[in-house]
Amino acid sequence: MKVIAKCLIVLIGCLGTQSAYSQTVDEIKGGKQYYWGEGVGKTPANAENAALSSIINQISVNVESKFSMITDNVSERVNDMVKTYSNATLRNIEKISWEEKDDVHILCYIKRSEVYKIFAERESKIKDFTATALKAETNLQVADALKYYYWALLLLRSHPDGNTITYTHNGAEQKLEVFLPRQIDAVFSKLDFSVTGKQPEPNITLYNLAITYNKQPVGNCEYSVFDGRNWSPLTTAKDGKGVAELLGEDAALHKKISVRVEYEFGDEWKTDKEVNDILSKVEGVPFKKAKIDIAMSKVPDFKPVEDVAPIATNNVAVATSSAVAAPAKNVLTIDGSGYLPLLKRVETAISTKNYESARECFTPEGYTVFQKLIQYGKAVIIANADYSFMLFDGGVLARSLPMRFSFSNRRTFVENVVFDIDVAAGKIRSLSFALADKACKDILSHDKWTEYSRVSIINFVENYQTAYALKRLDYLQSIFSDDALIITGKILRPAPTIENQYQNAPKIQLNRQSKSQYMRNLQKCFQNNEYVNLKFADVSIKKGAKGGEIYGIQMQQDYFSSSYGDRGFLFVLVDVNKPNEPIIHVRAWQPEKDPDFGLYDIYHF
To answer: Is residue 191 within 8 Å of 142, Cβ to Cβ?
Structure first.
């Protein structure tokens, strides 16, 4: 939104000028068109903050009676609520300033109609969050559904008309103050956790979990586990798979597993300035159903399938020779049983932490990627893989091995690892983290394109997101065109001070960077963070009119790192005419839809 700030500075030089000026001030103070406040201070900043504080008090007094959702310490809490609007409101403030003796006087004022427009904007955002949550719930993205239901609820409690705002769902008008808590409780009620296996480790037992929503594997879910002493850092489950660590190696002592499903997402609210302000001022809403106890019965030990045979490169080549001869630009699902000894040897190396024993399973470049993967947090296999095999671009893609990666008491991620096997060499040439099932289905739904094209896109996106996680700067340098258009962004929030306490709104910093600038900044990011993790959802794709396999890929991106996190929308214009040598021509990020043009799209470039 483009905001035009008007600032009138009146210098008192003569009686005539002061008379005209005084008349303007009198009109503002005497009429009913404005909220106004006057501040006096030794500096302009002191005077302006006093004036702005006075305006907030005026607005609070005028709307206090409408905040029916606030029942205790009403005046104080309403004042806090109105302050959550200040980051938006005060940018529309107009000012008149003058000096008297050694003091600075500032009169700040805003049209009452502007304030009510801001209330209307928040109502629109509440409904947008509700719509996002409903869509996420339909897509089994439990973490996203809970987050946006809860954020919508807190925004609702900050709105003067919160008890009357409605939303149309399934053809019926729903009062959101009733609908949102009911939806949140319903999500908890439809969640089911079960234990599928256990892995004793020194001083702990790792339990493998299956997580379903409405009897289907969840797309995502975040939760903490009570380990016997404390609640753990968040674990991010994926495609129905999760883990829980309990203290002690004697599983007989573990009678149940207590999980607390995340719904507040306090680590992420700084990505949205309104949510940020509200969560820091509004008392949270507790949901007892978020705590779920998982009953323990006889839990089998999880044992990775042992290495069933030596690596048999010659047998592999024979087993796939007919598939290798398939026409180019065709993708075939094949019987990849000949590759199982290769994959099981790698699994054994991971389980025993004897990584060097798997070196011969990889090409030199593949082993480098493997080393990066096992160094990406504490790596543990959490379930036996039920591999599917697909011939693609001179190789075979083996999908996928469920693994857990945890980081020094910060976060835990569950990922499915895809192996890219070089057919000619009979060795693994690369690895990647699989996209969520829903994202893959989004891409595969474009049946007007060949299966080859769709798998090319999946392969590119998986390698792209994995390159950030494994800090593969060399790979990223190789796939960006030298003249690529790169638009990056970051959410900034200056620390509040006495002088700027009303002007500390998070700001979006968008920059156009050259490839060399972007790579330098990315290198610093990798050096300064223990981990980086990207999650993509809501994938939308359009094909270029010229150039063959050139696509515009638009995705919702969740960015996690040990020092920063945000959510936004990523657009990538990529040439995958050579699937193993993709070329990115445009990489553009934006925090939200632009009111003028929406999201970056292939037609903008």
So the answer is: yes
- Rounded Cα distance between 293 and 299, Å, is 16
- Give the CA count within 13 Å in the CB-facing half-sphere of 560: 18
- 310: exposed, middle or buried (Cβ count in 10 Å: 0-12, 13-18, 19+): exposed
DSSP line for 544-604 = -SSSSSEEEEEEEEEEEESS-EEEEEEEEEEE-SSTTS-EEEEEEEESS-BTTTBS--GGG
Q: What is the pLDDT of residue 3?
A: 31
What pLDDT shows up at residue 68?
62
Q: Is 124 helix (H, G, I), strand (E, B) or coil?
A: helix
Distance, in Å, from the CA atom of 245 to the CA atom of 243, rounded to the nearest integer, reads 7
- Whether the predicted pLDDT of 17 surpasses 90: no
SS3 (DSSP) at 431: strand
Beta-bridged to residue 575, according to DSSP, are: 550, 583
Asked if residue 160 has pLDDT above 90, the reply is no
Distances (CA, A) of 26 to 23, 30, 103, 115: 5, 6, 20, 21
pLDDT over 90 (residue 445): no
Is the pLDDT assigned to residue 6 strictly greater than 60?
A: no
Interval 105-143: pLDDT, tens? 999 888 888 878 878 888 998 999 999 999 999 999 999
Residues 86/273, Cβ–Cβ less than 8 Å:
no
The C-alpha angle 270, 272, 277, rounded to 5 degrees, equals: 70
Helix 112-138 vs helix 142-157: crossing angle, to nearest 10: 160
Structure tokens at 441: 């289905």
| Backbone torsions φ then ψ of 162, nearest 5 degrees | -55, -30
How far apart are alpha carbons 32 and 19 in whole angstroms?
22
* Residues ≥6 apart with Cβ < 8 Å to 34: 28, 109, 110, 111, 112
Question: What is the largest distance, in Å, between two alpha-carbon atoms of the chain?
Answer: 101
User: Does residue 508 surpass a pLDDT of 60?
Assistant: no
Classified as helix, coil or strand, 169 is strand
φ, ψ at 93 (rounded to 5°): -70, 140
| Tokens found for residue 503 | 């002007």
Is 546:518 a contact under the CB 8 Å cutoff?
no
Angle at 456 between CA 455 and CA 458, to 5 degrees: 60
What are residue 511's DSSP bridge partners?
Answer: 488
Look at the alpha carbons of 589, 595, 599, 605 in this order and tell me if their dihedral is positive or negative.
Answer: negative
Residue 32 pLDDT greater than 60, yes or no: yes
Task: Confirm if 531 and 376 have CB atoms less than 8 A apart.
Answer: yes
% pLDDT > 90, the chain: 45
Write out the two tokens for 200: 């004793």
**186-223: per-residue pLDDT in tens?**
999 999 999 998 888 888 888 999 999 999 999 999 99
pLDDT at 594: 74
Q: Is the pLDDT of residue 365 over 80?
A: yes
**For residue 527, how many C-alpha atoms fall within 13 Å in the half-sphere facing its CB?**
6
Question: Shortest CA distance to 431 belongs to which of 393, 391, 472, 394?
Answer: 472
Facing residues of 524 across strands?
none
